[in-house]
Design brief:
The chain is an alpha+beta fold and 419 residues long. The protein is built from 16 helices and 17 strands. The strands form 3 sheets. A 7-stranded mixed sheet has the order 3-2-8-7-6-5-4, with no helix packed on it. A 7-stranded mixed sheet has the order 10-9-15-14-13-12-11. Strands 1-17-16 form a 3-stranded antiparallel sheet, with no helix packed on it. Strand 5 and strand 6 form a beta hairpin. Helix 8 packs antiparallel against helix 9 and helix 9 crosses helix 12. The N and C termini lie close together (10 Å). Bound molecules: 2-acetamido-2-deoxy-beta-D-glucopyranose (5 copies).
Length: 419
């Protein structure tokens, strides 16, 4: 046992093996849609698709997709493609059973906030001869895109069907699409109620940093004027100029990360202030449609989208994001890895779970539980702080190795014991 006790490294990797679909993966199996697939990734629409249930993708083959892509910049392609993502489930069977032969479906375009009337909806109509036509739901629009075939379905989560040509809503392809360098960042921010933030980024010159970064991909989290007035905001005039620059750079990420992408983010994200591993980063948490950024000192809801034009995204946030590197009082030296979900050691047929192990054999350390009430049903009731801290001192045992891999209701716990 002495050898066993010598060194114990316990790594609990809790991979949330979610049952959610992965559109990139699905389309990877169909080379005829590789261009469509690539554009779903480039525009981050893939992330948006993956965070939704009950969705239908109207896929375009490589010929149709390249014709659409050839003439338009990425932000326009994104708009056009978001009209091909229906927020409802349609497979071949359902298409041919549309009551009264005609219906409309809302699309992802509708959720962008700049979709007046029913420009974000699609008209699906049973045509003569068993054909199903698709077109913009704006009255009078042609239904000249037709259903071709089923590509893949996972009822009733996601259906991918091929249509003959792009669905074009009036004005979508002709609307001016400002390139990132054309976007007046300060103008957009002032209009969105972030005047204090604007004055700070202008004063410090951080605006130039943003503008340069925006060429390649930039996401800004701009605190509202209200946020700067909050009682718990530290006195920023006490910061040195370098610290103020870091604080402002902390509110930006060097990638295009629209909301759907933030929602799929599980690892901490680096900011423009990041100057070393784990320094000045942000954690993202999602609940339903809400995205919250956590600094380790405070947190803030991502409030509204000001600009979403590939590769630039600007959001407002309710609170000034306070990095621990500047405002942390007593930064905890080594934060325990945060499990995505609290894994419950549900017994598997073959492997004995820690709870089942005889008392004489030391059970492996219980993975840190973020909050006990989050433990799924079936978690042992002894899963309290006391037993956790006790078992953390426990050495590894052969029995523990048996438990190296527990596959538990959607979570995989991989325990690595070095002894
Ligand atoms: C459909 O999605 C739900 C929620 O993500 C998931 O629990 C379920 O397993 C999925 N169904 C299929 C057949 O993948
Ligand atoms: C989806 O699948 C692609 C290709 O297999 C992979 O690169 C990507 O990481 C997956 N995304 C998620 C969120 O699992
Ligand atoms: C769909 O378009 C057709 C042709 O323009 C129209 O007759 C029909 O009423 C539309 N359906 C719906 C549900 O709006
Ligand atoms: C950007 O907008 C601000 C405020 O509306 C304005 O003062 C400034 O002149 C604009 N800059 C450019 C380059 O258009
Ligand atoms: C945890 O341990 C403390 C002291 O060791 C004891 O007072 C407390 O009752 C224990 N709590 C539980 C839930 O066992």
């Amino acid at each position: 046992m002495g050898a066993m006790r010598r060194l114990l490294v316990f790594v609990a990797v809790c991979l949330a093996v979610s049952d959610a679909h992965n559109i990139t993966d699905i389309l990877d199996g169909f080379p005829e849609y590789s261009l469509f697939n690539s554009y779903l990734s480039q525009t981050r629409l893939a992330d948006e698709i993956n965070t939704r249930e009950t969705i239908t993708i109207l896929a375009l083959n490589n010929g149709e997709m390249s014709a659409l892509a050839a003439k338009h910049p990425l932000p326009v392609i994104k708009k056009a493609l978001s009209l091909h993502i229906l927020l409802d489930y349609f497979d071949a069977g359902k298409l041919h059973q549309i009551s009264d032969g005609s219906t409309t479906s809302t699309t992802l375009f509708q959720t962008t906030g700049n979709a007046p009337g029913n420009i974000g909806s699609v008209n699906i109509t049973d045509l003569k001869g068993g054909k199903v036509g698709f077109g913009s739901a704006i009255p009078g629009s042609p239904l000249d895109s037709t259903y071709t075939k089923e590509v893949k379905k996972i009822p009733y989560n996601i259906s991918v069907i091929e249509i003959s040509q792009p669905i074009i809503a009036p004005g979508v392809l002709t609307a001016p699409a400002p390139s990132a360098s054309d976007v007046n960042i300060t103008g957009a921010l002032e209009k969105a109620g972030c005047k204090t933030f604007v004055s700070l980024i202008v004063k410090t010159g951080v605006l130039k940093v943003y503008q340069t970064a925006a060429e390649k991909g930039l996401t800004l989290f701009a605190p509202s004027d209200e946020a700067f007035k909050a009682a718990d905001v530290p006195d920023l005039s006490k910061l040195t100029n370098a610290e103020l620059v870091s604080l402002l750079q902390y509110h930006a990420v060097a990638s295009y990360s629209p909301k759907g992408t933030l929602k799929t983010t599980t690892d901490p994200i680096s900011t423009l202030a990041t100057n070393g591993a784990g320094k000045f980063d942000l954690k993202v948490s999602t609940a339903g449609d809400d995205v919250t950024l956590k600094t380790g000192v405070d947190s803030s809801r991502v409030a509204s989208t000001v600009v979403d034009s590939t590769p630039l995204c600007i959001f407002t946030v309710d609170n000034v994001l306070l990095p621990a590197e500047l405002f942390g009082k007593s930064p905890s030296p080594a934060p325990a890895p945060e499990p995505v979900t609290s894994p419950a050691p549900a017994p598997e047929a073959s492997a004995p779970s820690p709870a089942d192990a005889p008392a004489s054999i030391d059970s492996p350390p219980a993975p840190p539980t973020e909050s006990p009430e989050k433990s799924p049903a079936g978690a042992p009731t002894s899963h309290s702080e006391n037993t956790t801290s006790e078992s953390e001192k426990s050495p590894a045992s052969p029995a523990a190795l048996l438990n190296a891999i527990l596959t538990v209701s959607g979570s995989v716990i991989i325990s690595i014991f070095l002894s």
